[in-house]
Automatic annotation (TrEMBL):
Chain ranges of the VOC domain: 10-124, 138-250
CDD domains: SgaA_N_like
Name of the featured protein: VOC family protein
SUPFAM superfamilies per the UniProt record, alphabetical: Glyoxalase/Bleomycin resistance protein/Dihydroxybiphenyl dioxygenase (SSF54593)
InterPro entries: Anthracycline_SecMetBiosynth, Glyas_Bleomycin-R_OHBP_Dase, Glyas_Fos-R_dOase_dom, VOC_core
Organism: Streptomyces gottesmaniae
Pfam families registered for this protein in UniProt: Glyoxalase (PF00903)
């Protein structure tokens, strides 16, 4: 990911909705070396921010509704959450949760694109989002898996103004040309019950070691470690509670 910090229109945060917060903390601390800190306020509902050093890098949160799946969610930064929700509706998306304030931290909403992929909108106030990208244990890429790629392309460019780079087998999203993610078309290899979704990829020092640790901790592999042609080494994993996420080799300088 070419972004080094949250910028308007780009991914700024990722959080796990989990059915067992303590178990998830143990799993991801072992996997990424995170230091979790739970917000003590009762109104926060157990929301837990994971840190690497002093940087907030992701969050773990209890499920707040019975219909909410155990899954990773991706948030995108916006200047105005209410205006962004209006843009989502205008472009054919659906609003799941209307904009609401989160203490003095910011204002957020939950929406669906026309293909049904959920994501979050974040208008920062005191909390801009992740304090570190691309380092081991932090967000390094986001990917949309969808059965409606043309509708998705039109939707996201209308809502966020993303730049689009289309290759032979892969579409890349960017903010003013700075790539931060991509899009894959879901074909017959994906079971019909798997919905369109956004998938966060975390940067790691060694993809193969991370995959091994995942299985040893009770998780599983959905895509074995593989090296993308002219790209990084990646794997797609499922944690011990069923949440899916990706890992990719952290880029080294020099």
């Amino acid at each position: 990911m070419k972004l080094e910090e949250p910028v308007t229109g780009g991914p700024c945060w990722t959080e796990l909705g989990t059915s067992d917060l303590e178990s998830a903390e143990r799993f991801y601390t072992e996997l990424f070396g995170w230091r979790p800190e739970t917000d003590p306020r009762q109104e926060a509902g157990g929301y837990t921010v994971a840190h690497l050093g002093d940087a907030a890098v992701a969050a773990l949160a209890p499920l707040y509704q019975e219909s909410q799946p155990v899954a990773w969610n991706v948030s995108f930064a916006v200047r105005d959450a209410d205006a962004a929700v209006a843009a989502v509706r205008s472009a054919g998306g659906t609003v799941v949760l209307e904009p609401m304030d989160v203490f003095d931290l910011g204002r957020f909403a939950v929406v669906l694109d026309p293909g049904g992929a959920a994501f979050q909108l974040w208008r920062a106030r005191s909390f801009p989002g992740a304090g570190l990208f691309n380092a081991p244990g932090t967000l390094g890429w986001v990917e949309l898996l969808t059965r409606a790629p043309e509708r998705a392309r039109s939707f996201y460019t209308a809502v966020f103004g993303w730049s689009v780079s289309t290759g032979e087998n892969y579409t890349r999203w960017g903010v003013e040309g700075a790539d931060f993610g991509g899009m894959i078309t879901m074909d017959d290899k994906f079971p019909p019950e798997v919905p369109s979704h956004w998938l966060p990829y975390f940067a790691v020092e060694d993809v193969d070691d991370t995959a091994l640790i995942t299985t040893q901790a009770g998780g599983s592999l959905l895509m074995e470690p593989t090296t993308v042609p002219e790209g990084p080494r990646i794997a797609v994993l499922r944690d011990h509670q069923g949440a899916v996420f990706g890992v990719r080799a952290a880029e080294t300088e020099g």
